[in-house]
Design a protein that fits this description.
With about 90 residues, this protein is an all-alpha fold. About 65% of the residues lie in helices and about 0% in strands. The protein has one domain. The chain has four helices and no strands. Helix 1 crosses helix 4. It starts with a helix and ends with a helix. About 10% of the residues are buried. The mean pLDDT is about 80.
Length: about 90
């Protein structure tokens, strides 16, 4: 899956859940490479090698997964992050 396809799947899944927007933005900021504006594609997206590693550790094999499942999994993970942070 391309970075663009992954981004679209995640944004579509999170867009209807405003309670997850703050934790989603903080998470995106944390995953964004430093000085992202210096390197192509000049947008604040995580490095493709990092995303490949994260997808491989999450789904196994080559890391390819169903985009609908990836969106659902990211929503579940952001919800967990939101609840974990509020209890700490």
């Amino acid at each position: 899956m391309s970075v663009r396809g992954l981004f679209i799947a995640v944004v579509a899944a999170v867009a209807t859940r405003p309670k997850l927007w703050p934790v989603g933005l903080v998470t995106m900021w944390r995953m964004t490479p430093k000085r992202w504006w210096v390197r192509s594609p000049y947008v604040p997206v995580p490095d493709s090698d990092y995303l490949r590693f994260r997808l491989m550790t999450m789904y196994g094999g080559d890391g390819s997964g169903d985009p609908r499942r990836i969106g659902t999994d990211v929503v579940a993970w952001l919800d967990w992050c939101r609840s974990w942070k509020s209890t700490a």
